[in-house]
Write a structure and sequence with these properties.
The chain is mainly alpha-helical.
């Protein structure tokens, strides 16, 4: 209703009146351009998603009017939406940044913190998934291991554990065999806020900016893709809802592009 109201106001301002029968496809094209140029806050252009939402609203409105016999046809039916740029490439850590972060964690001498960060960096777990883990969710054998996770949408998955994170977890499980798996200073299970705080503190010590638990999960996915693991396998381990989410990690970063052109240098 808000989108229709704003369209009516634009018509009144431009033509002096507004009747649904007089609206043509050209009017809608002009309105789309108006939204792109000055339809946002403070007279700036509206975001593509906002423009497209308005076009969808008007299409529904005129389709309803057509069905009710108020207009002969729907003038909005063939109006093309504004192209929306693809989602930005997720932020991840390169090898030297990963090493710097883990050095800071080890300097802190906390097996708990190393296990928490390791599960995100080496298993791609979401911060909420780490916080909800229990001892029985982790299985470690001499040459293999896995962690059982219930992720978004209550979807269950099992993520294999590499030798690095298995060793870290073995140390922590030996030190803390009791519930909860990852306690805070008060003995309760650590919260997502607590994990965000500890990641932020270690990133600061490592002189890294903009690092969050999500960054560590993104780094796991990027590392897997770079090592030739198939997209469907990475999607399964990360618990992605579709392969389109995982494909973001195949997009080259600025560092990837720089390394590529350096290979072509003559020096």
């Amino acid at each position: 209703l808000g989108d229709v109201r704003r369209f009516a106001e634009w018509n009144i301002k431009k033509f002096g009146s507004f009747t649904v029968q007089s609206v043509s496809p050209l009017d809608l094209v002009e309105y789309r351009g108006y939204l792109q140029e000055c339809g946002g806050r403070k007279g700036t252009g509206a975001a593509p998603s906002t423009v497209n939402r308005a076009l969808v609203s008007l299409n529904l409105f005129f389709r309803w009017l057509e069905r009710k016999g108020k207009i002969k046809d729907n003038p909005a039916i063939d109006i093309k939406p504004v192209s929306v740029a693809s989602s930005p490439t997720p932020k991840w850590l390169n090898r030297s940044e990963q090493a710097a972060l883990m050095r800071a964690v080890r300097d802190g001498e906390s097996d708990r913190d190393e296990a928490i960060i390791g599960l995100m960096l080496h298993a791609g777990l979401r911060v909420s998934e780490v916080c909800s883990l229990k001892h029985e969710d982790i299985f470690i054998a001499p040459r293999s291991g896995r962690v059982a996770v219930t992720g978004k949408g209550n979807k269950y998955r099992e993520v294999p554990l590499n030798s690095t994170i298995r060793k870290i977890l073995e140390r922590w499980l030996k030190e803390n065999p009791d519930y909860p798996l990852f306690p805070n200073r008060y003995g309760n299970a650590i919260s997502t806020r607590g994990v965000f705080k500890l990641v932020d503190e270690y990133a600061y010590q490592a002189k890294l900016e903009g690092v969050t638990p999500h960054t560590l999960r993104h780094t796991f996915c990027k590392n897997a893709i770079d090592r030739g693991i198939s997209i469907d396998q990475v999607a399964a381990m990360a618990g992605h809802s579709s392969l389109d989410v995982t494909k973001r990690y195949t997009a080259p970063s600025q560092e990837d592009l720089q390394n590529a052109v350096e290979k072509m240098a003559w020096e």
